[in-house]
Design goal:
The protein is α+β, with helices and mostly antiparallel strands and 141 residues long. It has a three-stranded antiparallel β-sheet. A two-stranded parallel ribbon has the order 4-5. 33% of the residues lie in helices and 16% in strands. It has helices at residues 21-29, 67-86, 94-102, 117-125; strands at 2-8, 13-18, 43-45, 88-91, 111-113.
Length: 141
């Protein structure tokens, strides 16, 4: 297996694994190597650090991730924690409660909960302001 650092014509950078260099060349020529972010098929090799074997090849290197992703994840976690600490959880009654607050049938307060796609569409049609509560990827693992 060989890992390539790739970049698309929209400057999205990503890594991909191929059976060997010929497999990459073949797939690239057929236009089936695409950017996972924008789906562009105009993809080429980016700058890559050489892979050098070491004497201690039995040790596994751990990825520390991308610092920007870690910062974004922390910001999302902080926002979610603030909302859940300061707002009332209304569960599957979110759409009803949000509509009552919007039309001043209930006292204004922060709420969070769940809504179906249909309820979300209906809230948008009624002009109710709301936003989805961000989830952090680790919550789904």
């Amino acid at each position: 297996m060989i890992q390539y650092s790739l970049v698309c014509d929209n400057d999205h950078k990503f890594d991909a694994w191929f059976r060997n260099a010929e497999a990459y060349d073949e797939q690239s020529a057929r236009g089936i190597v695409t950017c996972p972010i924008c789906n562009s098929d105009k993809v080429g090799k980016g700058l890559m650090a050489p892979s050098v074997s070491r004497a201690n090849s039995d040790k596994v290197a751990l990825s520390i991730g991308h610092p920007q992703q870690n910062q974004l994840r922390e910001a999302l976690r902080a926002l979610r924690n603030k909302v859940t600490a300061e707002a009332d959880y209304v569960g599957d009654k979110f759409a009803d409660e949000a509509r009552k607050i919007h039309f001043k049938e209930a006292d204004a307060r922060g709420i969070y909960g769940e809504a179906t796609r249909e309820e979300v569409a209906s809230l948008l049609e009624d002009g109710v302001d709301f936003m989805p509560l961000p989830s952090v990827p680790e919550e789904h693992n």
